[in-house]
Amino acid sequence: MDRPIAYDKLAREERFVRMRAREVAEIKVSQGLPPFPDLSSSESIKERVHGIMVGELQAMEGAGRSVCDFPDAPWEFTMDMARQTWDESRHVEIYLRLLEHLGGYAGEFPETTILWRCACAEDAAARVAGVNRGLEGLACDVFNQLVHIARKIGDPILERAVDFVLADEITHVRMGSKWLTKLTEGDAERRRRAIEFQESIDERFNLGGVRREGDHDVVSISIATDVRRMAGFTDEEIERLIKTTQRSQVY
Amino acid sequence: MRALGGWIALTPELSAKLLMGRHVWDLAQQCDAFGQRLPELRSRAHVSEAANPAVATFMDSLEDAEGPDQTVERLVGVYGVVKPHLLATYRDHLARANPVYEPPTRRILARCIDDEERHIAAGETILKYLAAGPRVTERVSARRRHLEGLLAAAGGVTGDGLATRDAPDVARRQTDLSDDAQEFIRLEKATGTWPVPEDLEEAQRSFAAALVAGDDAALARWLVPGLELEATAWSSLRGTRYSRHLTVAFARLGYQRLVKTRLEGPSSSATVLARWTSSPEGWRIAALDVAGRDAVRPA
């Protein structure tokens, strides 16, 4: 079995349309639309939920690869990645059902593989830093905001489902922090590279200023400072993330 | 466990993906329980070591079905060969494990038996769903024969010979741990009918027919002003014979629509992606790309 696999080996049913994230954003902007769904309408919520479903799919695939790709990593690492695979597969199901609930279907919007590419890092420490801390941190932001919006529009199904998933994501961030520390013990250079990788992902998913500190109703993706604290991010890390969003170029 | 984890990304079908994703964690817990029990029995913990070289050969062969079109080979290997064998091995071990001396081992085996019965039932359900059709059924049988031969030659995973206790009929086993295979299949099929506007459906049908006919003039009529046919992916497909077309995806990109069409011919197939935009003249194509050649079909 190939370990790891090339990122273009990610397998999909034909009903999914795969496009580059930049191209999707550019085409939407050319139509006078925001580059990312802004949660201002039921249609944009559906599009956001579809994006999350695809993200969960890729997270399941990425966690599964982490079970497979690192046979020499500590056994407890494999256990955590296996648990995460299970969690993500339940999340995929939850979001598929939420899509049905919102009148949508799998494949209704293009899939971008930017998240999966991040999950293809060859070093286990970089992978957990990038995926569990970078991407799952982003998930904390997105889900926390979605819970708020669902509550506001009076959709208890969406609110409760996403809230349960959010609890898992917090656990995944904690796993990432634990393994970033353990895997890089006594290897400052490896730790530096892993953190650098995570920061490059944070920067990428600031989405040119779309993710920011601010009110759920005003900002497209609001940084969930309290949830991030609960997940184990330090105040210094949160502050640094907020600062990077302020200097991210507008798309 | 590691093979299932790695295969999720390599498997196109949603139902099979979800199945594997659910079972990786159960298997990790099984490994962990056995691994913790081993030192209690004065052995080493968590050492991955095949019982003999033939077991390693069997496992290598099991794992080599990595292609996107080999989902049924993967499923039959794990759910049709390995797991029934493990189930029989666990049952055999449980029957021989002394109830007074070995309750810790017996408890682990009971949990594993429970998991494997559930996994096999779910796996067989998905396999039956994906392996419809005589050609796929033959692939399943061939794969099963091949792997069972290797497993028998290895003397089973323990190397001590195949356990003789047959797996009981587990097909009707109740699932209560959220790995209901029927639900995975339902979710995979849930798309139903795409909400394609009538006028776009008509345009798409004419366009796809022009692709099959290789009619440049008819194709060019569907392009937005300024987009030349030569500048599209059609230039790389022209000359290939296709006999039929099938719409395989319909997505939205703002006000525009993405339609994926599979073209099938006697010697090859291709998938093209058209981005349709509404205009005063009706629906027109703003971009045309090749999404895949000799496109892989599910299972």
Would you kindly provide a brief summary of this structure?
With 251 residues, chain A is mainly alpha-helical. Chain A contains nine helices and two strands. Chain A has helices at 21-30, 42-69, 75-101, 114-118, 124-153, 156-183, 188-204, 225-231, 235-247, and strands spanning 211-212, 221-222.
User: What's the helix count of chain A?
Assistant: 9
User: Strand share of the residues of chain B?
Assistant: 5-15%
Helix fraction bin of chain A? 55-70%
| Largest β sheet strand count, sense and barrel closure of chain A | 2 strands, parallel
Helix fraction of chain B by DSSP (H/I, runs of at least 4): 40-55%
Question: Helices, strands, pairings?
Answer:
The complex is a heterodimer of chains A (251) and B (299).
Chain A: H1 21-30, H2 42-69, H3 75-101, H4 114-118, H5 124-153, H6 156-183, H7 188-204, E1 211-212, E2 221-222, H8 225-231, H9 235-247
Parallel strand pairs in A: 1-2
Chain B: H1 2-7, H2 14-40, H3 53-63, H4 71-96, H5 103-130, H6 134-154, H7 181-188, H8 198-213, H9 216-220, H10 234-237, E1 244-253, E2 256-264, E3 269-279, E4 282-293
Helix pairs in contact in B: 2-5, 2-7, 3-6, 4-5, 4-6, 5-7
